[in-house]
Design brief:
With about 425 residues, the chain is an alpha+beta fold. It has 17 helices and ten strands. A hairpin with a 4-residue loop joins strand 8 and strand 9.
C-alpha cells in the first residue's frame, strides 16, 4: 500500500485520499477514498488544512478496496483534463484567487460599519450575472401526489393561513419602513416569522410547505418572508444563539428592501430584462443599505442588505472597496436567497426540485459560497428529506435511506423492490421530484 503526505498546494484533481481530511476545528471534511476535484481542493484550502494523505497510484487504492473499477475512468478523466490545463492561464488565476481569499479570511470578522457610505456608480462587465427569467420552462419541483399530500394537510392549511396574515402585515410594515420615518423594530419583525414557524413541527415540514406555497409570482414581500424563514432554520443548524438567530432572521426579512425604491413594473416584469432594466435592478442592494443605515440598524443586517448578491470569489454586485469584506450574515443570506429563488415558482417557470438546486450549489458552490456554511446548509436540506419518497430519472420511486455527507445531492435510495441505489456511485440516475 503506497501512501503519501502531500501539501495542499500540490493537490491535483484525480488524487485519492488515503486518510480523512479533518479541519483544525475537528470537522471531518472528506473521508478516505474521496476522489479530489478542484472544488473539493478549494474547500480543503478554505478550511486552512495544510497537509493531506493520498494514494500515489490508482492500483494501491484498488488493492485496498477504497475505490471500485467503475471509478477508475472518472479518475483518469480528471487527471487528463488537468494535464490539458497545465499550460493554460488557470494556475496563475488560481494563485491570484488564493491570495485574495487569504486577505478576505484575515478580515472575516469585520462587519460593515453603520458609517460606511456606499455611492451608486456605473458597473461594467457584469452582464453574465443578469437575473432575468429563462426563456424556456424548467421541470416542475414535485409530483402531483406530493403536492396534493401537502396542500390537503391540516398543517398546510394553518401554516398558509398564518403566512397570508403575516404577509399582509409584513407588506404594511416594510412599506412604512421604506417610505416614512418609522424605525426598524427587530422584535416586531421577528414576531412575523416566529408566528409562522411556530406551526411547523420540524425543518422538513417547513420546506415541504414552502415548496408548495408558491402562488405569489415574484413578490418581493413573499420572497423576503420565505428567505427569513429559511435563514431561521439555517441559523438553528449553525447553532446560533437566540440573539444572533433573531438578527439573522430579520436580515432575511429586510435583505431586498431596496427593491421598494425601484419601479414595480421592472421588478414584476415577466419577460427578459433589458440591459438598462437590469442595471436598475442591480441598484437595490445599495438602495436598501442606505435606507436601513438611516434607521440605525445593526451592522450585520446592513451587510446582508448590501452584499447578498456578492460571492466569495469577488463576483456579483455592487462593486465594493477591498476594505469592505463579506460578513457571515451576508454569506448566509446569499445562500438562503439563492435556494429560495431557484425552488420558487415564478410566472415564467416552475421551481426546481430541491435536489437539483443543491446539486448545482455543490458542483459550483465552493468558490462562490463559504464552504463552512454551504455544507451545513446542503446537509441540513437533505437530512430533512431522510425517509422521504422521491422519484428518480429512470422512472423508479424509492425512499431516501442514507445521506452521503460529502455529496448531499446523491443519497442512497431504497427502491420499492428493496434494492439499494447509491446515487454517489451511479451517476446515470438522479432525483427529479419529491413524492
Amino acid at each position: 500500500m503506497k501512501k503519501e503526505r502531500l501539501h495542499i498546494s500540490k493537490a491535483l484533481p484525480g488524487m485519492i485520499l488515503s486518510a480523512p481530511v479533518v479541519s483544525p476545528n475537528k470537522i471531518t471534511l472528506f473521508q478516505i477514498g474521496t476522489i479530489l476535484t478542484r472544488q473539493k481542493i478549494n474547500a480543503i484550502r478554505k478550511y486552512n488544512v495544510t497537509y493531506i494523505a493520498i494514494y500515489d497510484d490508482i492500483q494501491s487504492a484498488l488493492d485496498d478496496n477504497i475505490i471500485t473499477l467503475d471509478q477508475v475512468e472518472e479518475i483518469k478523466s480528471l487527471k487528463e483534463n488537468n494535464k490539458r490545463q497545465e499550460n493554460s492561464k488557470e494556475e496563475k488565476s488560481k494563485q491570484e484567487d488564493s491570495n485574495q481569499e487569504n486577505e478576505k479570511q484575515g478580515n472575516l470578522n469585520q462587519g460593515v460599519s453603520e458609517s460606511t457610505e456606499v455611492i451608486l456608480k456605473p458597473e461594467a462587465g457584469e452582464d453574465s450575472d443578469k437575473e432575468s427569467p429563462p426563456e424556456t420552462p424548467i421541470q416542475t419541483v414535485a409530483s402531483e401526489k406530493y403536492k396534493n399530500r401537502i396542500v390537503n394537510s391540516e398543517e398546510y392549511f394553518e401554516f398558509a393561513k398564518h403566512f397570508n396574515n403575516n404577509l399582509e402585515a409584513f407588506h404594511t410594515e416594510l412599506h412604512e419602513i421604506a417610505s416614512t420615518s418609522k424605525k426598524v423594530d427587530v422584535d416586531e419583525l421577528m414576531d412575523t416569522t416566529s408566528d409562522i414557524l411556530s406551526l411547523a413541527s420540524n425543518s422538513l415540514q417547513v420546506f415541504d410547505i414552502l415548496h408548495n406555497l408558491r402562488h405569489y409570482d415574484d413578490s418581493t414581500y413573499a420572497h423576503s418572508l420565505n428567505v427569513s424563514i429559511i435563514c431561521n432554520v439555517f441559523g438553528k443548524w449553525l447553532q446560533y444563539s437566540q440573539e444572533d438567530l433573531k438578527l439573522l432572521t430579520v436580515a432575511g426579512l429586510l435583505h431586498d428592501i431596496g427593491k421598494l425604491s425601484i419601479d414595480p413594473k421592472i421588478i414584476k416584469k415577466p419577460g427578459k430584462l433589458t440591459d438598462e432594466e437590469f442595471a436598475i435592478i442591480k441598484q437595490h442592494p445599495v438602495l436598501g443599505f442606505n435606507l436601513l443605515k438611516k434607521k440605525g440598524v445593526d451592522s450585520r443586517i446592513l451587510s446582508a442588505a448590501l452584499m447578498h448578491h456578492k460571492k466569495c470569489d469577488g463576483s456579483g454586485y455592487p462593486n465594493l472597496p477591498p476594505s469592505v469584506p463579506l460578513t457571515d450574515f451576508a454569506k448566509i443570506v446569499t445562500i438562503a436567497d439563492i435556494y429560495e429563488a431557484m425552488t420558487a415558482n415564478r410566472v415564467y417557470r416552475q421551481g426546481l426540485c430541491p435536489f437539483d438546486v443543491i446539486k448545482m450549489l455543490q458542483d459550483g458552490g465552493f468558490q462562490l459560497y463559504e464552504p463552512k456554511f454551504l455544507m451545513v446548509f446542503l446537509n441540513g436540506i437533505v437530512q430533512s428529506y431522510l425517509n422521504h419518497y422521491v422519484q428518480l430519472s429512470n422512472g423508479q420511486v424509492g425512499v431516501i435511506k442514507y445521506i452521503n455527507q460529502f455529496s448531499p445531492p446523491d443519497p442512497m435510495i431504497q427502491l420499492e423492490s428493496g434494492e439499494i441505489i447509491d446515487l454517489s456511485k451511479d451517476k446515470s440516475v438522479r432525483i427529479i421530484a419529491l413524492m
